Amino acid sequence: MPDPQRVVDLRSDTVTRPSAEMRRAIAEAEVGDAVLGDDPTVEALETLAAEMLGKERALFVPSGIMANQTAILVQARRGTEVVIDAGGHILNYEEGAAAAWAGVQLRGVTTPDGLLREEDLQAAIRPRTGHGVQTSLVCLENTHNSAGGRVLPVERMRALVEVAHEAGIPVHLDGARLPNAAVAAGREMREWAALADTVMIALSKGLGAPIGSVLAGTEETIAVARQVRRRLGGGMRQAGFLAAAGIFGLERNFSLLADDHRRARRLAEIAAAIPGVTPLTPETNILMLDLAPGIDPAAVLSRLSERGVWMYQFGPRRIRAVTHLDVDDAGIERAGSALREALVGGAPPPVAGV
Ligand SMILES: Cc1ncc(COP(=O)(O)O)c(C=O)c1O
């Protein structure tokens, strides 16, 4: 097994380790008991995030899943239905949390590209007939993870939110990678966030913080969310150490996401010239690679790993590569060469050179 410190790890943008400067910010953070409301660094993070998202209040939570589930618990009534596209993270990758904690059922709407269409949403919202099940929340995702980091355009989101709001239904935006969407589209996060009733962003993905997400909304919604977070056991005491990393990520790493997007495009360009693999054009930092029939993704991943490159299986014929702060231009070239060797042959280099 190659040394993990020297591997080109493209499994996810969650694998980054804090830089020396981020570690300094963590070490020097002023902290207090955040549950009692006296951690100035948590306060500063929540103020900064609320400002960047154009929302009244924000709440620091330990994870993206806790942010999503808190939003559902606050807005969706028990025994109702939440509409989401069928590839959504909340539906597929949160261990059934919405059913387990909030007592809601998720209605997945199949879409060709992860982006709900107005007419599909209209059709999925149930009429308030007094029997059957009622729709109580719509969840959107931007960028869309399983659709390959696709950006939900502001205008498209506006049209979807109008459909939901006309039916009296709030909208939650899973914006774990909203920073990537904003950088890719050259727009402000608040342009999307303003449309949603609640929005979450992850600090521990492209922004490079080790832990944490932020949930934002109105003063009233976030006050209830604070109670829910505590009920879930997510109240953290001297959390300013983590909040300091989040502030660093928002202030210093945000604009670097453009490099991740450029590197994903470069890897796609290399992959496009390799027989047996078809890259989906990446809009942000997630590159999906579709393998030709008969090529076993597990075998490709294993050959990549022998060459010190890690990717992730994302379906029976698909592998995923995600760029992030800890992969530089040289890493992308190495990953491209390893992919070529894994698909067209060639002996693995000696592990010592990895
Ligand atoms: C779109 C999306 N939402 C939510 C999450 C959950 O974040 P966390 O792993 O911090 O719980 C992820 C994680 O990959 C994600 O991709």
* Derived structural class: alpha/beta
Mean pLDDT, rounded to whole units?
95
Strand percentage:
15-25%
How does the major sheet shape up?
Answer: 7 strands, mixed
Strand arrangement in the largest pleated sheet: 2-8-7-6-5-3-4
Distance between the termini: 10 Å
Low-confidence stretches: none
The string of secondary-structure elements, in order, is: EHHEHEHHEHEHEHHEEHHHEEHEEEH
Q: What is bound: which ligands?
A: pyridoxal-5'-phosphate
Number of strands: 13
Output the number of helix runs: 14
Shape: globular
**What is the radius of gyration computed over CA atoms, rounded to a whole number of angstroms?**
21 Å
Percent range for helical residues? 40-55%
